[in-house]
Design brief:
By secondary structure, this protein is an alpha+beta fold. Helices cover 26% and strands 27% of the residues. It has a single domain, classed as Endonuclease/exonuclease/phosphatase (Deoxyribonuclease I, Chain A). The strands form 3 sheets. It has a 6-stranded mixed sheet with strand order 3-4-2-1-14-13, with helices on both faces. A 6-stranded mixed sheet has the order 5-6-7-8-12-9. Helix 1 (35-52) packs across helix 2 and helix 4 (222-252) packs parallel to helix 5 (270-276). It is flat.
């Protein structure tokens, strides 16, 4: 049996770095890094990126390109040093052995990094982070960035029982979405990188007031703060709908798709379900038709097949769920806080990589999560360090067919 083509193997990862910016710059009010803290953070991030050694990485919470370029450059330096240590020289008879090829670090070129700043980034103390994407394969074209929507998303609400109950309009995203076309050994895949709205409550500051009333915890307003969380949830889910529309356009063109990022929600949340797509019903021939004239009218067996195919064609699969399904691993988590361990960072893939699809062009061989640095802040003795990321990193190990 022939060995698989190593050029068909690639890894794809999501990495929320937690507020990457250069030293002595106030990104949020009263928040900045000293030169020593920045050096520590750069060192940790480079070590993490080197350990991952991913071919494609979607980064979140990047305030400026130079700081991320510093991390990539340092990673390249460390990778070159490792190559010098572990790769045999040409005078060794075993220098072409596969094991050493797998140990080799391939550096990221100057064309590997794309940065998307936040359109609404402000002055010192009021900064807003953007996103970035790193690709050893480069890009098939300049990646597309979407944040200020050319056509607003309008969500209309009917009254229960009929009538108009108003609408919600989304004109801009809290953070950009990157859409990149990446060539991999003769194929081109579409990769989205996103960072949906956080769960932090959105409170309205009255004109002329120094802060929103709900921000004053000494006059705690539980209802007002609940409404703030509702605003965040609505914005996050609406952003998911914008992303979903972009994904479906790619899938309807039969383009292989990956979606990376910080969803700020677990995989069972409504916002995550919006991005992933509807889960098909087990058998639609059991379901009464939408246009039924009597209680016995149900979808036919042929219509059941048609409906299921229409849904599956635009549905995404979680890399984590595929891994858990075929492993004995108990739990994968990328966030730990208040005693809650959950995955809010995700890698989703189109059915081009689903093992249940007979026409798949590839499959996932393994799934890695780098979360040893995470500690639960609810425990007083936890060695929490604000300089490391507060997210675990996830990576899918992929193999194209052929």
């Amino acid at each position: 049996m022939p060995y698989p083509d190593p050029n068909n193997d690639f890894t794809i990862a999501s990495f929320n770095v937690k507020n990457l910016i250069g030293p002595d710059q106030e990104y949020y009010r009263f928040e900045s890094y000293t030169p020593e803290e920045y050096a520590w953070k750069e060192d940790w991030l480079a070590d993490q990126l080197l350990t991952m050694n991913a071919d494609i990485v979607g980064f979140q919470e990047i305030f400026e390109r130079p700081a991320l370029q510093d991390v990539v450059d340092e990673t390249n330096r460390r990778g070159a040093a490792i190559n010098a240590d572990v790769i045999p020289s040409k005078d060794k008879r075993y220098h072409r052995k596969a094991i050493f090829k797998k140990l080799r670090y391939e550096e990221y070129s100057n064309e590997s990094l794309f940065f998307a700043p936040n359109l609404f980034d402000g002055e010192a103390g009021n900064r807003r982070p953007g996103l970035a994407m790193l690709s050893r394969f480069g890009f098939d074209d300049i990646p597309q960035v979407v944040q200020d929507l050319p056509v607003p998303l309008v969500i209309e609400f009917p009254h229960i029982g009929g009538g108009d109950a108003g609408s919600f309009t989304l004109t801009r995203l809290s953070r950009p979405i990157i859409k990149a076309r990446i060539p991999i050994n003769g194929r081109v895949v579409t990769v989205f990188n996103c960072h949906l709205k956080s769960k932090l409550g959105e409170f309205i500051r009255p004109e002329g007031a120094p802060f929103a009333p709900e921000a004053n915890l000494l006059s705690y307003d539980p209802v007002g703060r609940a409404i703030g969380e509702l605003r965040s949830m609505l914005r996050r889910t609406a952003e998911a709908a914008v992303l979903r529309e972009m994904i479906v356009a790619e899938l309807q063109a039969d383009n292989p798709v990956f979606v990376l990022g910080d969803f700020n929600d677990g995989d069972h949340a409504v916002s995550s379900a919006v991005v992933t797509g509807e889960r098909p019903f087990k058998n639609y021939s059991w379901m009464r038709r939408h246009d039924a004239q009597n209680r016995s009218e149900r979808y036919t067996d042929a219509e059941n097949i048609q409906i299921t195919e229409s849904i599956e064609a635009v549905r995404l699969t979680s890399a984590e769920k595929l891994f858990v399904r075929k492993s004995l691993r108990d739990m994968v988590y990328t966030s730990a806080f208040g005693g809650v361990f959950e995955s809010i960072d995700q890698i989703l893939m189109s059915r081009h990589f689903n093992p249940d699809n007979a026409d798949a062009i590839g499959n996932m061989e393994y799934f890695s999560v780098f979360n040893d640095h995470l500690t639960d802040g609810s425990h007083a003795e936890a060695p929490y360090n604000k300089l490391a990321s507060d997210h675990g990193q996830i990576m899918a190990h992929m193999r194209l067919n052929g």
